[in-house]
Amino acid sequence: MMPAGPLAIAPLHTAPTVTWAVPGSKSLTNRALILAAMADGRSVLRGVLESDDTTHMRAGLEAMGVRIETLSDDCWAVHGGTVTPPEGPIFVGNSGTTVRFLTALCATLPGTSQLQGDEHMAKRPISDLTDALLQLGVNCDCATGCPPLQVHGGTMNGGTVHMRGDRSSQYFSALLMAGAGAPSPLEIAIDGALVSQPYVAMTLRMIRDFGGSAEQAPDGFVVQPAAYQAHDYLIEPDASAASYPLALAAASGGTVTVPRLGQHALQGDVAFTEVLAGMGAQVSSSDAGITVRGPARGQLRGVDVDMHHISDTVMSLAAIAPLATSPTTIRNVANIRIKETDRLAATVAELRRLGQTVEHGDDWLRISPGPVSAATVECYADHRMAMSFAILGLCTPGVTIADPACVAKTYPRFWADLGAVYRAQEMEVPW
After folding, report:
1. Which residues lie closer than 8 Å to 219 by C-beta, 6 or more apart?
2. Which pLDDT value is given to residue 295?
3. pTM here?
4. pLDDT(58) > 80
5. Domain ranges of the chain
């Protein structure tokens, strides 16, 4: 059962030694759903994440004629090759991957497709993608530059398209996957530096896994027309979600193992362990999983780090920075301002609410640690705010999470898994 908020987090009595299995990757699940839907035949996706974001993606594809079976809690069968225009609007909630990936997919389909989200999605830009589709002959009606939007598809051509690289890598992943449906090769040119590049590398790998052809070029990417093939695909645990238990190990002086997320993981966010190592944690990684052992309490070091390519873990670091012995500076993360909320502004506001001294600019913040004041952390309907600051609450008293239910977006069982950590210490679960 999802606890109701506000939710007070009780500090752990001692440093934990636990194995914390995180659910399947949202990023991999939603990409696999798109590729399997476009593929000929029946794909079996194992280790899927069932959350708000993936449920919206599944419902959207089912509205487009794709039959998806639930074989078990984390195993779905996708009957691909039958994607058709939806008869009515597709509701995407506040799922960025869903609206961006489906927008590009709808561009390959005849007729008009409508996509709409909740009040938070109505503030999330998508004009970079719709402008790119216009370059390929696809008209989109999007009055505000944010959803809702209409896609007048069936006219997506090949050729060259230019797109800014500093906004969201999901725009590139959307075009890369849908590009296989274009009648001729699609060249995607990057204007400027590409943000979160490991996510695009992951997309390229998955496209090849499903029989497509997409490669990096000197100034961007090239996608060849191809028919995707059904695939039995195993989804690895979510590396972004793993940042919370691994941050707990570093901040508490404990030892936490995340199984099945190994040294050959596809997801770039496993590089968060390098940040923790810079703070004094010991990190070991193998095909069986990742283990982080934190430094003794009071010996966590601040770091100065560029998180441009692992920006989904910015708040995981920021939330434990108050426990460090020196300031922490996070740089080159302007792109987090167009996520579920303006994450840079939200993180600054909540750290200050907790008594921290925080300086910031458009793409950076610097946290000078001090005593943590008791406060209720606002979540801004952002799952990562809730989970990141819950880790701080495990290590110091006074932290309350205003909206614990928002974790359902990507990690519905987060509070149950956190409860297991309390039980491992023979503590009463606070909810």
Report:
1. 189, 190
2. 98
3. 0.93
4. yes
5. 7-24+236-424, 26-214
